[in-house]
Amino acid sequence: MNAIATIAAQAAERDLPFLLGGGHAVITHGHSRNTFDLDLVIRRSDRERWTALARDMGYVPRSEGPNFVQFDAPGLDRLPLDLMLMNEETFGKLLAEAVPAPVSAGAARSVSLPHLLAMKCHAIKHGHAGRIVKDADDVQHLIQINHVVCVVPISGSCFLSTAQPICMKKSNDSAVEAAELEFPDWSGMRESAGRVTPDQAFQLCEEYAAVMPELAKRRRMEPPQKCVVEFTL
């Protein structure tokens, strides 16, 4: 039984509802990427009981705020745990439209695709700068993989409304002369999302912390500094 299934079983015994968010929710909806933590969406009123459950499972408190509680993993074979706190009304809406997670996650459920996209876009617009590129990449892949038709262009309303617009500028000049490079034809290659099932991706996520601890540690470093390099598009 993996960590998510174990948590789901423990939460069910204590009558503590939750939903998968973050990278595991992204995987559930088809984008099989890596992730170095486990994000659970919970009711704010259940904060203390979830903290007790996490402690009982060996997780070590790391930091907390009005809308989150973070725990370090009990060992290298587990991912750090983040609890995302929602008010009763919001959590109820998320729960009503939740979808089943992959079989390996036991009875766990994930936020729906529309709600996941909304949460990602909110993070892009209001979250810290270090996550903008990652969240934008998630949104782009989720839209493409699930053939989502956007009535309002997400890129214009969210991606460009960031806290650091001065880090990029448009340019009509080519950064590299095409004649200097000769790229192979990769047009026949398939995206990895079509070759890795969500269950396989979940299993790989559990192995990251054990086989690549130096990468997992990066997540616990100090907040990233502002970008000082100007990129030309």
Protein described:
The protein is an alpha/beta fold and 233 residues long. The protein has a domain at 3-111 and 194-218: Beta Polymerase, domain 2. 39% of the residues lie in helices and 14% in strands. It has helices spanning 3-13, 22-28, 47-56, 88-96, 113-126, 132-145, 154-159, 198-211, 213-218, and strands spanning 19-20, 38-43, 60-65, 68-72, 81-86, 99-100, 109-110, 168-169, 231-232. It has a five-stranded mixed β-sheet with strand order 1-2-5-4-3. A hairpin with an 8-residue loop joins strand 4 and strand 5. Helix 5 (113-126) runs antiparallel to helix 6 (132-145). The termini are far apart.
Helix coverage percent: 25-40%
CATH architecture of the domain at 3-111 and 194-218: 2-Layer Sandwich
The main β sheet shows up as:
5 strands, mixed
Strand order of the largest sheet: 1-2-5-4-3
- Find the count of extended strands (DSSP E, 2+ residues): 9
* Integer-rounded radius of gyration: 19 Å
Count up the helices. Answer: 9
Overall pLDDT confidence: 77
The structure class reads alpha/beta
